[in-house]
Amino acid sequence: MYRVPFSKTNLTFELPPGWRGTVVESRSVPPLENVPQAVAQALASPTNSPPLRQLARRGDRVCIVFTDITRASPDDLLVPPILAELEAAGVRDEDITLLCGIGLHRPSTREEKVLKLGQAVVDRYRVIDNEPLNPEALVDLGHTESGIPLSVHKVAYEADLLIATGVVEPHQYAGYSGGRKTLAVGAAGEAMIAYTHGPHMVDHPGTRLGRIEGNPFHEAISEAARRAGLRFIVNVVQDDQKRVVYVRAGEPETTFQELVAFARTLYEVPVPQQYDLAIAGVGFPKDANLYQASRAASYLFFAPTPVVKPGGFFIVPAPCEEGAGEGVGEQRFLRAMQEAPSVQAILDDGRRHGYPPGQQRAFVMAKVLEQNEVIIVGAKDPDLVRSAKFLAAPTMDAAFDIVAGKLGGNLDVLIVPHALLTLPIVGG
Predict the structure, then answer these.
(1) Which long-range contacts (CB under 8 A, 24 or more apart) does 133-139 make?
(2) pLDDT tens, position by position, 237-260
(3) Nearest CA-CA partner of 233 in 60, 61, 421, 67
(4) How far apart are CA 154 and CA 411, in angstroms?
(5) CA-to-CA distance for 232 and 235, rounded, in angstroms?
(6) How far apart are CA 148 and CA 184, in angstroms?
(7) What residue ranges do the domains of the chain occupy?
């Protein structure tokens, strides 16, 4: 009997006779017993940097960029110790701005800011959102050698001391999230975000999960952070239950390298081969809509080597109670998937004309569907799923019947209960 997350519960199933199942999960390590103490220790002994209380001084303008509600970074545990260090250095409250790195997401609500930072922080300090569509709020940082337009929020650029928090985990574009990404994407303008999520970036062979070297997305955000003046980061690594297992602070480049080295030991799992079928678990809240749930298939597809053979299948159990999702980006994704006459048309149109932010998920999934079929199991609205060029099945057994009808029996199956936090490395 196998088990994968499904909404807030689990879905259990057995494979058909003759099918061989392999389960892969990220490595289990004990969570930190006292996260605030660990954060304090990281701040007291940062990597390749003086402590914050030595970097900051009275009269400095300080900007702390933190993630919005869509990211699991435990900023309520990271930001207060940073503020305590700044206070010890003599920095005045009125000289500190907390900038929510919403990227191109909707503005955060006050309630969400409180959830991220705590009531006391929101009441005491200035907390603002990035404004990606407001040229007056942005600073043009020029272009990279490859032509990527770089920009950052003015408050971040004008700070005497620029700090960012974040969580380091596998990321479809950056290789690993965290590090400089909270600032370089979260506090950027629309042009940079659109370009770095565009077809030229997604098509690049270096843009893959777990890949840092030779990754043009990672190179772009590193250059943006350097030009913006990012000097200090405080980041964590978490397990698949969102418990903090590792924390580091310090100079952005070397600190990020330390975090990624640890994250690789946690998330990257060797598998001996490619498979006929991968069952990709998601769980709440990501499986509440098709836009987010589809990441399970694309994450495994964009592993350093795709884990499923060309012509094989992904099965993603996801109720998708919110349909494709209610945001602008989610609706752009749905319309692109529904209105294109074929998967190839999505790719051709994206490469010819580009696409607005949010619609990149249609391009990404078209690349997956070009090679593999994706079955969504248990969706509330299977007709919507089918209209978006996915297959739909009410149960796992029904999904297995679809696969067997195409591939026959005697199949090799990879079961990844936490597909967004497990990176199978074929031959690794």
Answers:
(1) 133/189, 133/190, 135/189, 138/188, 138/189, 139/228
(2) 999 788 999 999 999 999 999 999
(3) 67
(4) 55
(5) 10
(6) 12
(7) 2-25+268-426, 35-238
Q: Are 413 and 279 contacting, i.e. CB atoms less than 8 angstroms apart?
A: yes
What's at 63, amino acid-wise? C
Tokens of 81: 């110790």
Alpha carbons 179 and 258: distance in angstroms, whole number: 10
Give the model's pLDDT for residue 36.
94
- Residue that is written with structure tokens 């090679």 in the block: 371
Q: Report which of 387, 389, 312, 286 is spatially closest to residue 347, judged by C-alpha positions.
A: 389
Q: Is the pLDDT of residue 382 over 90?
A: yes
Render pLDDT for 386-422 as a digit per residue (tens, 0 to 9): 999 999 999 999 999 999 999 998 999 999 999 998 9
The amino acid sitting at 334 is L
Q: How many residues are recorded in the chain?
A: 428
Q: Calculate mean pLDDT across residues 198-218.
A: 92
Strand partners of residue 413: 21, 277
418 φ, ψ (degrees, to nearest 5): -125, 80
According to the CATH classification, is domain 2-25+268-426 in 3.90.226.30? yes
Count of CB atoms situated within 10 Å of the CB of 136? 6
Average pLDDT, the chain: 95
Query: Is pLDDT larger for residue 356 or for residue 215?
Result: 215
C-alpha to C-alpha distance for 19 and 399, rounded to whole angstroms: 14
* CA proximity to 49, closest of 136, 162, 190: 162
CA distance 11 to 271: 23
261-266: long-range pairs with CB below 8 Å, 24+? 262/237, 263/168, 263/169, 263/170, 263/176, 263/237, 264/210, 265/27, 266/26, 266/27, 266/29, 266/237, 266/239
How is residue 311 written in tokens? 């012509």
Distance CA 246, CA 263 (A): 9
Q: Which CATH superfamily is domain 35-238 in?
A: LarA, N-terminal domain (3.40.50.11440)
Structure tokens belonging to residue 150? 């770089």
Question: Among positive and negative, which fits the CA dihedral 88, 45, 76, 190?
Answer: positive
Whole-prediction pTM value?
A: 0.88
Residue range 270-325, pLDDT digits in tens: 999 999 999 999 998 889 999 999 999 999 999 999 999 999 999 999 999 999 98
Can you tell me the mean pLDDT for 126-138? 96
Tokens of 9: 């519960």
CB 372, CB 363: distance < 8 Å: no
Query: Packing angle between helix 110-117 and helix 75-88, nearest 10 degrees?
Result: 70
Which amino acid is present at 10? N
* The two three-digit tokens of residue 288, written as one number: 């509440």
CA distance linking residue 323 with residue 382, whole number of Å: 9
